[in-house]
Amino acid sequence: MGSGRSAAGRGRIVTLTETGIIATWLDSVLRGDTGAGGVFTLATGGIFEEIDPNGGSYPKVIFRYQGGSDYAAIGAARRVYVNALYAVYAVWQTPSFGGALDQIAARIDVLLNGKQAAAGGGLILACVRVSPLQIPGLMNGVSTRMLGGIFRIMAQH
Prior knowledge:
The chain has four helices and six strands. By secondary structure, it is of the alpha+beta class.
């Protein structure tokens, strides 16, 4: 599963990896928030895993794997669950962290923090924000801001 989940993510239902289960769940939750003030409604530039392959328009939401570890029972030949860190954030070409960028980041937190779910042929055992994410940048001479969080997501296949 590469970048550009705007199309690829919707068709994927069962996966063989824990990170695939997490990506499927994140994509589904973020895209499913379609009401007024919802992430999918506000992120008119799309929702993507890792990168927007076309550069695209703004605002957009990116989620990406940051690292993690396996947990196995003592003496067991198989993993009990994966403990992964994911950055999930809104990106916009804007000079400030306020306005709609802040709205999207706050909504991401509401949708993900403290949640559990069945997804992609596995389970999301827990999802907890462990750190805020706030990054200023400059792309092609234009102020760009990233705002969201780092989430610890425990998943089981």
